[in-house]
């Protein structure tokens, strides 16, 4: 059909379709077919994307499982042992907290705060990797065997620990916390709680100095053997912070005429 617009005669547009006037309906059929093909293409692309996403997710799950730390790894050993090691330092600090004059109390507050915060980081790391802070598989200090830090010769290594710490250790493993270097005995903790004034400060400094030296050595060993970036950052912070506090405590002991 033709129509007249002014003096110009025009034919209806076919929108790019090659319509044969002798085949009525062919243009509509081709348009319908074109639309179906486009929908099919969209469906195929969507399916490919879904399958690809599923593959990536499956790969991530496999990677996370294969990358999970073993119970005997330096990562698990360090996090578990340092968590327990810090617990005693916090306990010692709480005995003197707000009971000593400044600037001594500031040092105590710093030790308690820093080590409690670091405990939280270690516990969160263990939880994120589905590892308990302590269970029947825990053998303290095994991850440090053959280390170059001289831990075996350090005071406090393999000494018996009694009281609450030893009770928790005995319920966990034959070695438990008692095998950790730098740990104070229950008798020493009792004496620390009973003393007052300068004698209490001196004993605290002596116990905490030994405790810090052991903790710094443990963290240094992890920096040599460990690979987890978060724990490496934590270990570095422990070494830096405790070496700084070791210097302060050494000076305080010297000022009190002892070592």
> What is the arithmetic mean of pLDDT?
76
- How would you sum up the major sheet? 2 strands, antiparallel
Q: What share of the residues lie within helices?
A: 55-70%
**Percent strand:** under 5%
Explained architecture:
The protein has 7 helices and 2 strands; from the N terminus they run ββααααααα. Strand 1 and strand 2 (8-10) form a beta hairpin. Helix 2 (74-96) runs antiparallel to helix 3, helix 2 (74-96) packs antiparallel against helix 6 (197-225) and helix 3 (104-128) runs antiparallel to helix 7. The chain starts with a strand and ends with a helix. The protein is mainly α and 259 residues long. Mean pLDDT is 76; it is low at 1-24, 47-66 and 153-177. It has 2 domains: 30-67; 69-255, Ferritin, core subunit, four-helix bundle (Ferritin), CATH 1.20.1260.10. The chain has a two-stranded antiparallel sheet.
Structural features:
2% strand, Ferritin, mainly alpha, disordered N terminus, 259 residues, 2 domains, 63% helix
Record the SSE blueprint.
Blueprint: E1 3-5, E2 8-10, H1 26-66, H2 74-96, H3 104-128, H4 163-170, H5 186-194, H6 197-225, H7 229-255
Antiparallel strand pairs: 1-2
Helix pairs in contact: 2-3, 2-6, 3-7, 5-6, 6-7
